[in-house]
What does this fold into?
Amino acid sequence: MNEALSVPCPYCGESLVIEPEPSDAPIEYVEDCHVCCRPIVFTVSYSEDGSEVGARREDE
Ligand SMILES: [Zn+2]
It folds into this structure.
């Protein structure tokens, strides 16, 4: 079951909902913001307390 996570876009601040594939290892992937079309680096990690998601600019 995928858990939907919400994270603000690091460029425009729009709240984005992502549904990452569950994994034992931290995930990092790039996806364009659907609002401002700039590349966002998402980092997703899982723990027993729940998932954590981060978003940063690709050029940082
Ligand atoms: Zn954006």
Notes: The radius of gyration is 11 Å. The chain has a mean pLDDT of 88. The chain has one domain: 5-57. The pocket of zinc ion is lined by residues 9, 11-12, 14, 33, 35-36, 38 (CB under 6 Å).
